[in-house]
Inverse folding.
């Protein structure tokens, strides 16, 4: 009968440490605990140790928690220091010396049996917790650092399409020939957004240039500048035949462009163009703005 009661007591202690008890089980535990020699705290400590087995401890303790632990440690060991001071005082006041030794606890078969029963119950508790956590899918290794997604870099043509789709104030103008008869086949368009201060040239028929001798330069004629000093829209080279898309690199803020022009200049471009070599013109028509 007593063996059945002890076994039931161990089961209740295991459930209390791992899962918690109902009110009825708590009353039953209180009845069985009277006069029992099994240490209930050992079950709680075992459950806590198992639950923390996978916890990562690489990070240092928070400052406030470390301070609290040190303060509690000082209080805990203060009693031992006080006892040592008393023994030292007695030694100074008497002529005889003695060696203090803590009394060794006397073991008993019943105490050993109680600890053996608690150990067996802890093993059963550990198995129960491990299987429960394993079935619920809560056991996990170190969290792997997610690999950041590599964002695909858009080509100038894709960026142009994105601007046309997203901006609500896109100005578009068609390219036509300039004052150079040999470049009469230049075609394409230019798109520009005042709000985003971004735009792109789409060109076809503009010859490949020798970057060591010359460069193409874009000019933006808008309402903020005189026609004699249009805004520098950037210098670029054409390195392949066929259609090319060039981002606009405006050196000043442009507003309400009226026309765009491409001239042929020295490598690196110029501050003010004499417009002797105009490779293409793109006037903005009223219905294109």
């Amino acid at each position: 009968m007593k063996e059945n009661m002890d076994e039931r007591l161990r089961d209740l202690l295991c459930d209390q440490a791992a899962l918690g008890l109902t009110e009825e089980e708590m009353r039953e535990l209180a009845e069985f605990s009277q006069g029992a020699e099994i240490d209930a705290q050992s079950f709680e400590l075992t459950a806590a140790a198992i639950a923390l087995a996978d916890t990562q401890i690489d990070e240092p303790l928070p400052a406030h928690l470390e301070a609290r632990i040190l303060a509690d440690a000082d209080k805990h060991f203060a009693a031992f220091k006080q006892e040592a001071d008393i023994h030292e005082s007695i030694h100074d006041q008497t002529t005889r010396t003695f060696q203090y030794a803590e009394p060794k606890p006397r073991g008993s078969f019943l105490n050993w049996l109680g600890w053996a029963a608690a150990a067996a119950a802890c093993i059963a508790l550990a198995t129960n917790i491990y299987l429960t956590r394993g079935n619920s899918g809560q056991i996990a290794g170190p969290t792997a650092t997610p690999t950041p997604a590599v964002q695909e870099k858009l080509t100038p043509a894709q960026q142009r399409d994105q601007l046309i789709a997203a901006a609500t104030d896109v100005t578009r103008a068609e390219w036509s020939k300039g004052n150079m008869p040999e470049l009469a086949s230049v075609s394409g368009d230019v798109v520009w957004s005042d709000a985003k201060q971004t735009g792109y040239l789409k060109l076809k028929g503009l010859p490949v240039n020798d970057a060591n001798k010359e460069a193409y330069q874009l000019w933006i004629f808008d309402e903020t500048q005189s026609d004699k000093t249009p805004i520098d829209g950037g210098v670029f080279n054409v390195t392949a035949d066929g259609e090319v898309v060039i981002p606009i690199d405006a050196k000043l803020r442009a507003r309400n462009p009226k026309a765009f022009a491409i001239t042929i200049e020295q490598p690196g471009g110029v501050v003010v163009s004499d417009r002797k070599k105009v490779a293409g013109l793109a006037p903005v028509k009223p219905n294109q703005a």
